Amino acid sequence: MMKQIRNFPAATVTKKGEAAARNGHPWVYAEEITDRRGDFPNGCLADVFSPKGAYLGTGLYSEKSKIAVRLLSDNANERFDDAFFARRVKYALDYRRAVMSDDFGCCRLVFGEADGLPGLTVDRYADILVAQVLSYGMDRRKDRIFRALYDALAASGEQISGIYERNDPALRLLEGLPQEKGWFGALPHPQETVTEIVENGVRYEVDFENGQKTGFFLDQKYNRREVARLARGRTVLDCFTHTGSFALNAALGGAARVTAVDISEAALKQAERNAARNGLAGRVDFLAADVFDLLPRLCENGAVPYDLVILDPPAFTKSRKTVAGAERGYKEINLRAMKLLPRGGYLATCSCSHFMPGERFEAMLAAAARDAGVSLRQVEARGQAPDHPVLWNVPETDYLKFYIFQVV
């Protein structure tokens, strides 16, 4: 029988739920809860116990989500007050200062569960922070966390001009939260929602109000740098370029020619502005096309116009139910790219979906190579930048697979 240790509602979980909590996974699924004691207002703090009554941890309760409790701590004496969240913020900032060094001014400051702040993402674009809150309990506590971030950065001499909330993902609806976006009004902020960042020496315009996710994909930072190193003197095809990040890194890295492809004309217009911003107008060609149509056409032409192909597609799957279809999509573009490349050419390819595990992605690449009649020599296997840390006991934090191959 569970023993209530303080004035929090309490939940008992199954042996499976107990095992997950003891292994360090912070998610307690609603289907794993077998008994409850006390009132459970949405977003409240709740204690979690094993079937034999052992305390497992305390977390934030969500009445509508399949994840009923997101554990914050297994310390039974924790108070979960302002000081608690200030410590979590400090740990997150100290970690980024250590691992990002000179890139601390443009990186992810908070990566949800990996930083002990489940359901919260905060990206830094110079003097602007862009936050996304995806859990009900965290949404109720965002004010104290945002102020802790603002104060901690200010204390180290780094003034933040504003915090913008990109709370428009559909996932918020599953938490009973509205989709919305706008400035966090409790702090001063500018009016404009476009800023400039510098990454790997490349200057970008970031539209954090309307851009994908929080405005820019920071997780590929160091993968772009590796592609830039490889691109010198090569002809490069950057597929799914979005706002041009890989293409611009390749061009500044000394590529002989770069073609950047995306189906979104709006994204390409921003990519062109980014090229001009870096003095690369005329050195990168921008093509509005569906990559699934373009690659077969290039293969049929019989020419070998590129010796480095970059495949950075959006997540083809956002659930386990659609993994098989996503795998077919990944195989199609990788197979075509392998056929397009000459012997000795290079392929940079990735998947950003954690529902596509690394082993399955690698098996797909091997099958694509067999069907293309080529062999792959692995140059590097990489992942997300360290500002998106992987917590080994939370597999969901490990999502980006990035490979560089030579086709031989």
Task: Write up this protein.
The protein is α/β, with parallel strands linked by helices and 408 residues long. The chain folds into 3 domains: 10-73, PUA domain (Archaeosine Trna-guanine Transglycosylase, Chain: A, domain 4), CATH 2.30.130; 82-193, RNA methyltransferase domain (HRMD) like (Transcription Regulator spoIIAA); 217-407, Vaccinia Virus protein VP39 (Rossmann fold, 3-Layer(aba) Sandwich). Helix content is 31%, strand content 27%. It has helices spanning 15-22, 82-100, 136-140, 142-155, 171-174, 221-231, 245-252, 265-277, 291-300, 323-340, 358-372; strands at residues 10-13, 27-29, 33-37, 45-49, 55-61, 67-73, 106-111, 120-125, 128-133, 162-167, 180-183, 194-199, 202-207, 235-239, 257-262, 284-288, 308-311, 346-351, 376-382, 401-407. A 7-stranded mixed beta sheet has the order 16-15-14-17-18-20-19, with helices on both faces. A 6-stranded mixed beta sheet has the order 2-6-5-4-1-3. Strand 14, helix 7 and strand 15 (257-262) form a beta-alpha-beta unit. The longest helix has 19 residues, at 82-100. The radius of gyration is 23 Å and the shape is globular. It starts with 9 loop residues before the first strand and ends with a strand.
